[in-house]
């Protein structure tokens, strides 16, 4: 009746309203046969979900809104999640760890767009996400990886001075000199850590060495720690520490530090990583080890790992 009375010509609806026997299908028959009107054009749009939650429902409430999403991710990324899909394609907005992978994808796309190597469809989606008719959306001057920023603010509990110290050490040849270079992405990562990461998953670095665990180490484990500590000074950057932590098991296996990992070597690396996590934060996993080591600081790392 409303379609006929108001002359509605365009009314999109969700997939549940466009399925066989739904309100849109039945309404199309009624408007023509009973009211002499026409069914409007009704493009179907699919559901937008939240990672780990049921579908969004404006009637039920109790789920994050786009405003909540903009507190943990920058506007271009949220727009990109929509812009790269057709309306009838469902997808989820990540409030969990998946947000880190999405940011990695976005940063890779930004790099391709800057180089002019992005596929036309990807470049078009990027353009729709990064700007509006009013102009470019706000950007982070120095967009460090979201997962790195999240790890840093997790460890520092948002302490600005400590955060700047760690970020400056990421690339000593081109250090971050002000946190403003990393905002608003830094603020989004901090909000995500504070509101979306469960307390039991937060990173708490040990205050004192685990003397009992250190005393129980076998000679191979002790040697791996010695190799790591010996290399700290010459590898104190994000890339350098990445090479170091992956290289220690290679050296112990008699391989070149640049050698490609074998299945056996990957097992040894995982064992070495678990050892470091246990001695530094008291559990088997945590933030990426190079970032964790930078955050803890060389002196404290030596204190906690010296057997």
Automatic annotation (TrEMBL):
Keyword field: Aminoacyl-tRNA synthetase, ATP-binding, Cytoplasm, Ligase, Nucleotide-binding, Protein biosynthesis
Location(s) in or outside the cell: Cytoplasm
EC number of the protein: 6.1.1.6
Domain of life: Bacteria
SUPFAM superfamilies: An anticodon-binding domain of class I aminoacyl-tRNA synthetases, Nucleotidylyl transferase
Reactions listed under catalytic activity: tRNA(Lys) + L-lysine + ATP = L-lysyl-tRNA(Lys) + AMP + diphosphate
Broad EC category: ligase
One Pfam family of this chain: tRNA-synt_1f
Family recorded in the similarity comment: Belongs to the class-I aminoacyl-tRNA synthetase family.
Protein name: Lysine--tRNA ligase
């Amino acid at each position: 009746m409303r379609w006929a009375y108001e002359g509605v010509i365009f009314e999109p609806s969700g997939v549940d309203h466009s399925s066989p026997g739904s309100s849109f299908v039945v309404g199309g028959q009624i408007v023509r046969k009973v009211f002499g009107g026409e069914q409007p054009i009704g493009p179907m749009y699919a559901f937008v979900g939240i990672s780990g939650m049921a579908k969004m429902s404006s009637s039920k409430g109790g789920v994050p809104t786009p405003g909540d999403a903009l507190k943990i991710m920058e506007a271009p990324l949220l727009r990109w999640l929509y812009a790269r899909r057709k309306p009838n394609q469902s997808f989820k907005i990540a409030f969990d760890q998946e947000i880190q992978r999405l940011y990695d994808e976005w940063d890779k796309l930004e790099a391709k767009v800057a180089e002019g190597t992005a596929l036309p469809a990807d470049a078009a989606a990027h353009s729709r996400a990064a700007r509006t008719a009013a102009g470019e959306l706000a950007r982070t001057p120095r967009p460090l990886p979201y997962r790195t920023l999240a790890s840093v603010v997790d460890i520092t509990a948002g302490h600005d001075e400590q955060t700047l110290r760690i970020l400056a050490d990421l690339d000593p040849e081109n250090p971050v000199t002000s946190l403003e270079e990393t905002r608003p992405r830094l603020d989004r990562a901090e909000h995500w850590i504070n509101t979306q990461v469960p307390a039991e998953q937060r990173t708490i670095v040990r205050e004192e060495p685990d003397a009992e665990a250190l005393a129980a180490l076998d000679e191979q484990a002790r040697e791996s720690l010695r190799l790591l500590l010996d290399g700290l000074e010459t590898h104190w950057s994000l890339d350098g520490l990445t090479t170091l932590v992956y290289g220690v098991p290679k050296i112990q296996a008699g391989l070149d530090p640049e050698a490609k990992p074998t299945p056996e070597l990957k097992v040894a690396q995982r064992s070495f990583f678990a050892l470091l996590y246990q001695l530094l934060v008291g559990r088997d996993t945590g933030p990426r080890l190079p970032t964790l080591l930078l955050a803890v600081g060389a002196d404290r790392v030596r204190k906690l790992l010296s057997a």
